[in-house]
Amino acid sequence: MTSPLYKRVLLKLSGEALMGEDQFGINRASIEHMVGDVVEAANLGVEMAIVIGGGNIFRGVAPGAKGMDRATADYMGMLATVINSLALADAMEQAGLTARVMSAIGIDQVVESYVRPKALQYLEEGKVVVFAAGTGNPFFTTDTAAALRGAEMGAEIVLKATKVDGVYSADPMKDTSATRYSHITFDEAIEKHLEVMDAAAFALCRDQKLPIKIFSILKHGALKRILLGEDEGTLVHI
After folding, report:
1. What does the subunit section of this Swiss-Prot or TrEMBL entry state (predicted)?
2. Domain for residue 2, yes or no?
3. Annotated binding site for ATP: which residue ranges?
4. Is there a contact between 120 and 134 (Cβ–Cβ < 8 Å)?
C-alpha cells in the first residue's frame, strides 16, 4: 500500500457541512459520510486532529441573537462547536475509532479541557483529537483555531474541508470559465485577493510555514486521496 504523504494533520470541518440538506442542526447521513472519510485516513496510519465550526447550530438561534453583544454571541458559537464535537466523536467511536474531545473553555463535566501535552499524547497513541470551543476567546473564528491548534500540534498541513473542491480564479458558481488552482503560494493568494481562510488564520499559517489544502468534503474519498498525494483540491504553500 502507498505510504501517506503526511504523518500528522489538522482537519478543519465547517459546522454547516453537518447540516446536509437540512436548514440547521446535525444530519446523521452527513456526519456518517464525514466519519467514513476520517476512518479511511486513520486506517492509513495518519495522526489526525480536528477542529469543527458551529454554524449549523448557531444558525438556528441566530435570529434571536440579532443586536446581541458580539462577545456573548461568540461564546454561544463556541458552545455550538462543543455540541458538534461531541456528536462527531460519538460517530467516530461507533465507527471503531477512539476519539477524545478537548475544549478551550472549561466544561469539565462534559469534556476535558485542552492541555497541549495531553493532546499530543492522544495523537501519538493513535486517537483522533477533536478540539472544541475554538480558541476559547471571542472575536476569533474556528479557522484561526484550526491554524493555532495545527501549529501547536506540529501538524504538517491544515486540511480545510469546504463545499468547493479548491480555490478558483473566480466564483465557479457565477463564472463558468473559472479554473481551479492545483497549488498557489501565500503571496499569490494575497495578490489575487483569493479567500482561503480568514486573515488571522491565513497569517498564522504563513508565519509558521504551515501549508493549507482546500478541498471538498462532499467528494467521497477526497481526504484519502490528499493524504496519498493525489491531485485533489488546492495547496497553499510558502
Report:
1. Homohexamer.
2. no
3. 12-15, 55, 59, 162, 168, 171
4. no
